[in-house]
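#structure-requests
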Amino acid sequence: MYKPTRKFQSDMDREGARRQRENNALSLRRKDRENKLQNKRKKIMESRANKSTPQKPQPSDSQLLPISIRDGQQKDLLTKLPLFVKGCFTEHRATIFECTERIRRVLSFQHGAEESIKLVIESGVVPRIIQFLHFNDAPNLQFEAMWVLTNIASSKKPEYTANIVRSGCLPLFVKILSNQQSCYQLQDQATWALGNIAGDCAELRNLVLNENILEIIENILKQQYNPNRVGQNFNSTDLNKSPKQLYLIFLENIAWTLSNLSREKLDGDREKYKY
């Protein structure tokens, strides 16, 4: 019977040891590569999280003022909030617009934003503000009303966002967004509001999806840019922007809204959300 010589056995041991070292080195390289990939993915996800927040209040020109002046204006506006609410329930359009604009300014301050939202909701004015979305002959009022609701939906408290949804704003936002006669600024404001609602939680996101929002957005993106659909300057911060810049801002907000529609895990029937 054949028996390996000592030299042969020694050569085999060295070959086995060499292969083991190579396998160990390969395993270490793979592990190192996986760690690097995981770290890279983590950095990318952190970067995306920083760049795309679920909800965002709409900036106001009041934020450009010094802090001491802003605080003084905010205190003055909050003191007069009952007067603004009363003005919204009149039938005089100019008064309605002015008071809605003042309520929007109340909600445009970052400092104490949650308390301001709470006070506006408790005033009972939200259903009346939502009624203004029906005033197609007053696009400036529609814009201010949507701005108020957008800033309420930027709250960190889901119950505040749920309040405006229960009051019936969702289908009206969608109607304005899908209306091909609406100017881009109105559509943009509706998009911003819907993005805030969708970014609040999975339940509210699903309500937005159930409004056929993906098909509406696809139809918008298929349309060519039309400079005639850029309306008046509703916002003083838009005065220095060209019509094309305003349109591009609208598209940016559509992209942001789509990211919020994709943020939470889908429950139930996934097929109905495929498009």
